[in-house]
Amino acid sequence: MKRLLETGNYAITEGAIIAGCRFFCGYPITPATELAEAMSYRLPQMGGTFLQAEDECGAMHMCIGAALGGLKAMTATSGPGYILYSDPFGWAIGCETPVVVMNSGRVGPVSGITGAPGQGEFYMTRYPAQGGNYESICLAPNSAQEAMYMTVEAFYLAERFRMPVTVLADQLITDGFEDISVPETEDEIREMGFRTWPRKMNEGPSFYPPTDEIDVPPVVLGHNTGALCSDWTPTEEGYDIEEVEAHHKHAYRLIYKVRNHRDIFNHLYEKKYMDDDPDLVVVSYGSPSRVVNTAVERARQKGIKVGALRLINLWPFPDEHFEKPGKYLCVELNWDGQLVREVRRATTSDSTVNFMGICGDLPTINELIETFEKVIKNEPLSRDGWRKEMW
Amino acid sequence: MERKSSVFLDNYLRSRKIPSTACTGCGLGMNHKLVVQALAELEVEVKDVIWCTSIGCAGRQTFATWQGDNLAGTHGRIYAIAKGLRVALPPEKHLILTVGDGDAFGIGLNHLINAARANADMTVIVNDNLGYQSTGGQYGWTTPQGAKTDSSPYGFYEPNLMGEGMDVLHILKGAGATFLARHVSMDGKAAVESIKKAILNRGFSLVHMPYPCTTNFASRHLGSRDPGQIYRWVRDHAAPIGQEKEDTIWSTGIWHDESNVRPEFSDLIRENVEKIRRLGHR
């Protein structure tokens, strides 16, 4: 095992290689460029292929092509590139092609601020493609080391569920330098708790079974299995068909293969000071959760009874954490409030859900503790003009 | 009606999709047959072809017709998918792409040019039905100038990608394509020979193949859905390169042949990856 002071982008690259990724195609975009650069250096050493595409749309389509040829493939981008993935994302969801996508959030909308962290794509990771009728899987790490873990995990889930999986990071995680440990042997990979899953091949003729089962091998072309894969509604064999019933069966599979097997990944969360029924639960994910964890610890030292719930598995949304009535505060790196909407949906009607939003920077510990106290005392959250969004 | 089986149906195609659901009088089947004939004459085996298609008439009607593996991309993206697939597959596998004019020369032109630039080994057959016909008959980028369509009721007056000096084949040649040809679907044997050369080029090949659309193009532009009229119209507006007349729209034949001269995309990758591995870490 080697220890390094490296960026999240580097850690993700090493994670992808551990997972068996041998194809990467991307398009330069801050703050995911260094991931492409690291891949361009590391993949050929492993016998893999790095490609730079004409645009993000082409990049993910090339990943799909490589995945259909039997390779584990990955692409990475930031918000303005993630929207150009919509087209291939839909294809990969519909054709059930395993691909891993890393999105490093910055401040939007559009190009916004390139070198500052944001969490404006919470809902976009749920609906990365048009049309609906599918479920998504999204994992959100909060450190470089965890980004490595979640990348390996994303490859594992992509194979078992045979679908594209998003790793949602942000600029601080991908660009920030941290102490990381990289396993160097198979034993170390196992000891460090990484889960991997080999690429298998569907032999047909049932390429798209109308069931919720997982571990159905994906289509691999070039072996004369007679595989049919397209963007149209498939029959079980893959013939294109214009029938609502056939599409309903297909959509059932796309939705429920994920919803009915959440037990495989719903342990991906972190709870701190949550055992004594705290007066306030602070919900967050990604890099702000690190400040939240510290603020909750300090607040506890001051006798304020708060707990921290950090989500790693963002989608499908883990409703089970919000069954208990109480006070919740969502801390997010955006000003419009996205996670808070989902928490409001998931909580009981007698719960109160508050929002503290900041974007491009992290909240301070003092600001957070002040807000915890106000929410607990039922005091209105002050609004400091345009400076901060609190409700 | 009793249908007689054919050698092509027995050896290469799927009876579930042949005959296709194309309109009566559609010329796509002629193009499709020319491609299968070229593969048959080259004795390419079913297992060695990945039949790739796009959307629209050409994509939908040729998808899942090949007895082996079939793949269809969304609007204009199959060239990028095929490039990724090319990297993953062994060199002996043929990628045959039967796509439409809107897909290749409209929405997919960026990806197409970049596949040509890379000289990625694929054979792209652009089945040009003179516009966007599966959406009801709008003009496309190789629709003949002056044509009346549902979106050009007064005649198509924008510059298209088929005029002298602006031909899409010039663009693709400039981008690095190593084999380019154009044939109308009535070219028969000559078209088969060009398609065979396209397949034998280990690199990016494209054959542009205009064919008659009776339902939309002919009914709007010629005022008739009589297949005979549009067949004659397409045939009479095509002439071999060097024998063009004043009203020739499509100059047919081989436009550009640099087969097997430039290195192929995936070969280049394999070669470089091998070199990097051999030389080890920096």
Ordered list of secondary-structure elements with their pairings:
The complex is a heterodimer of chains A (391) and B (282).
Chain A: E1 2-7, H1 8-19, E2 21-26, H2 33-45, E3 49-52, H3 56-68, E4 72-77, H4 79-82, H5 86-94, E5 99-107, E6 113-117, H6 122-126, E7 138-139, H7 144-161, E8 164-170, H8 171-175, E9 177-182, H9 186-191, E10 228-229, H10 244-259, E11 269-272, E12 280-284, H11 288-301, E13 306-311, E14 313-315, E15 327-332, H12 339-346, E16 352-357, H13 365-376, E17 389-390
Parallel strand pairs in A: 2-3, 2-4, 4-5, 5-8, 7-8, 12-13, 12-15, 15-16
Antiparallel strand pairs in A: 1-9, 5-6, 7-14, 11-13, 16-17
Chain B: H1 7-11, H2 28-41, E1 49-53, H3 56-62, E2 69-72, H4 78-88, E3 94-100, H5 101-107, H6 109-118, E4 122-128, H7 168-175, E5 179-182, H8 189-200, E6 204-210, H9 214-222, H10 227-236, E7 238-240, E8 250-257, H11 265-279
Parallel strand pairs in B: 1-2, 1-3, 3-4, 4-6, 5-6, 7-8
Antiparallel strand pairs in B: 5-8
Helix pairs in contact in B: 2-8, 4-6, 6-7
Q: For the record, give the distance between the C-alpha atoms at the N and C termini of chain A, rounded to a whole number.
A: 46 Å
Outline type of chain B = globular
Bin the strand percentage of chain B: 15-25%
Largest sheet of chain A: 8 strands, mixed
Q: What name is given to the CATH topology of the largest domain in chain A?
A: Rossmann fold
Total number of beta strands of chain A: 17
Separation, N- and C-terminal Cα atoms of chain B: 70 Å
Q: What's the order of the H and E elements of chain B?
A: HHEHEHEHHEHEHEHHEEH
Number of DSSP E strands of chain B: 8
In total, how many domains does the architecture of chain B comprise? 1
Number of domains of chain A: 2
As residue ranges, the low-confidence spans of chain B are: none
Query: What oligomeric assembly is this protein in?
Result: heterodimer
Arithmetic mean of pLDDT of chain A: 96
Order of helices and strands of chain A: EHEHEHEHHEEHEHEHEHEHEEHEEEHEHE
The fraction of residues assigned to DSSP E strands of chain A is 15-25%
What is the correct CATH architecture of chain B?
A: 3-Layer(aba) Sandwich
CATH secondary-structure class of the largest domain in chain A: Alpha Beta
